Amino acid sequence: MQSWIEISEKRLVENLRAVQALAGGEDDLGRPEGVETLGVIKANAYGHDAVKVALILAGAGVRWLGVSDVQEGARVRRAVQGVAPVEHRLTPGMAAQEMRLLVMGGLEAEDCRQVVEEDLTPVIWTVAHVEMLERAAEATGKPVRVHLEIDSGMCRQGVDVAGVGEVARRLEGSRWVSCEGVMSHLAAAEVAGSEQTRRQQERFARALQVVAAEGIRPVWLHLAASSAVDEGGTMAWMREQARNLGARVMIRPGVALYGYCVPIASGVLRPQLRPVLTWKTRVIGVREIDAGESVGYGGTFTAASRMRLALLPVGYADGLRRAASSGVGNGWVMIQGRRAAVVGRVSMNLTTVDITAIEGVEVGSEVVLLGPGVTADDHARWDGTISYEILCGIRAKRP
Ligand SMILES: *Cc1c(COP(=O)(O)O)cnc(C)c1O
Prior knowledge:
Elements: E1 3-7, H1 9-24, E2 35-40, H2 42-46, H3 50-59, E3 64-67, H4 70-80, E4 100-103, H5 112-117, E5 121-124, H6 127-140, E6 144-149, H7 161-172, E7 177-183, H8 195-213, E8 220-224, H9 226-231, H10 233-245, E9 248-251, E10 277-282, E11 285-289, E12 294-295, E13 301-302, E14 307-312, E15 332-335, E16 338-341, E17 351-354, E18 366-370, H11 376-382, H12 387-392
Parallel strand pairs: 2-3, 2-9, 3-4, 4-5, 5-6, 6-7, 7-8, 8-9
Antiparallel strand pairs: 1-10, 10-18, 11-14, 12-13, 14-17, 15-16
The protein binds pyridoxal-5'-phosphate (PLP).
């Protein structure tokens, strides 16, 4: 085993509660007031293991999960089968509902059969999507509920305001496919009061009017990922939209559940969140080198004095970024609670770190590659990227 990850169930649930409390406060039953949480577990739960995270979130009362595609949806469906989400912590007697899985990353014709069979809920935005789902639903005799995505300005997924009427009409007239939710996604939610967000809200509101005019009464409206919940303004706006349409608000937090978020001027989440994942390995070799020796490919590091090095069985093939190399991002790992700097270049499967100042490190000593003392934000900074990319790029043994 080269490296493995550990997941803190406690922290995951604490992060979930922090997001829920911020999204809507709580009603007198302790539920976030009218706001439903869809836990985003796409990309194998940002590297945390989608099945493990799904089971923890279900146990914490989350009834909706968002997956990347039908394959991931099917895998999670099998894992949660028979595990009814528990009632929310203060609502004994509330009927346990089936776990709902929203497939967020597009829909292809060959996916439709599995959507119906595994009881998945796809995000759709074209007439072709409706028609191919209809065929699959009719063939199996099981109706399908979908969420309609509006492109409010990201120019990625979704139907734009001009096209929404046609798709809504087709949905409204369908015997087999019904529109349960209407959603959009913000491009710059982390910028408080941004012009981009204002423009997207305005377009989303217009699309909602068109949908309503076509006779569709969605149960759910959703727009907010972690940053939009944290930013503050969007949630109040969403509640107002939902009130006007007689719908309910859903939030779609991902990264915040895992303990990270983008710093936002008006944000309050960051200090409340704690990372859920720890990535570990063990030392596989220890050596001393003399001053003047150079380390690793290219000999980019030369020892100025005698030093002790530990060899780790992890490299960029495992997701430890090459930019952690000394002289580039100057990354480090944690051993016995102390920083051990990367020395020379991170190679494909091996990395060397400086343990000169850390006593008692030997073959088999545990090493924290990412966790307390070295966060995904640190890794991201070394490589000029974001915590999301670091987390979902980790290739390690899952719990
Ligand atoms: C990934 C994603 C989310 C979650 O985003 P975070 O920033 O991780 O909270 C929500 N909605 C959609 C459509 C997404 O693609």
